[in-house]
Specification:
It is a single chain. The chain has four helices and twelve strands. The chain is α+β, with helices and mostly antiparallel strands and 188 residues long. The radius of gyration is 17 Å and the shape is globular. The strands form four sheets. Strands 3-6-7-8-9-10 form a six-stranded mixed β-sheet. It has a two-stranded antiparallel sheet with strand order 1-2. A two-stranded antiparallel sheet has the order 4-5.
Length: 188
């Protein structure tokens, strides 16, 4: 017996912000919306999830009262066409914690832990989308063969609306204002 998997109709049509907002958190958990279309994101590995959580916890501990760092929630980059991304780590204004949809103006930094599947998306596509949305910092984290994370930092150049390459770190991140502390990722 051969069974055929049929994708739901909503995966073949443009999604409006109103439709997406009516979905449950569970329905939104492993998808992103790109140009109004559903993009299914494969689940991150335990190692990638752990790295994201450690990074978020470290950033949260040094962020001070004005900023929060969390994992796994939507950032609404634009409404038309709908672009909704789920960065692995988001540093956002603490006073927006109760706001239903996190928007770029609430966000200070997004970080993506590169997984084998969406490498091009994390290295190229998301960089452009986050820059266009005006998010000041983008970090891309990759796992080296040795297991020590490599952190590539990007800083938004307001004159060009694109990111310029910042520093690259291995294992230890020296966070700068408003994050004046060391973040040790070497034990992952």
């Amino acid at each position: 017996m051969i069974t055929e998997t049929i994708a739901p109709a909503w995966m073949h049509q443009q999604i409006t912000p109103e439709e997406y907002d009516s979905w449950t958190e569970k329905q939104c958990a492993e998808i992103e919306i790109v140009d109004g279309m559903v993009a299914v994101s494969p689940s991150a590995s335990k190692r990638d999830n752990r790295l994201a959580r450690i990074l978020a916890n470290a950033l949260d501990s040094v962020a001070g009262p004005d900023w929060n760092a969390d994992t796994d929630f939507d950032v609404r980059l634009q409404d038309v066409p709908l672009n909704n991304r789920r960065p692995d780590v988001v540093v956002y204004r603490a006073d927006t914690i109760a706001v239903t949809r996190t928007r770029p103006e609430h966000v200070f930094l997004v970080a993506e832990v590169v997984s084998p599947g969406p490498e091009t998306t994390d290295r190229i596509v998301k960089v452009e989308q986050y820059a266009q949305a005006g998010i000041v910092f983008y970090w891309r984290i990759e796992q080296a063969a040795t297991g020590v994370p490599l952190i590539y930092t990007y800083i938004l150049d307001p004159a060009t609306g694109s990111y310029r390459t910042g520093e690259m770190f291995t294992g230890i991140v020296e966070a700068s204002a408003p994050f004046p502390a060391k973040i040790d990722l070497g034990r992952i």
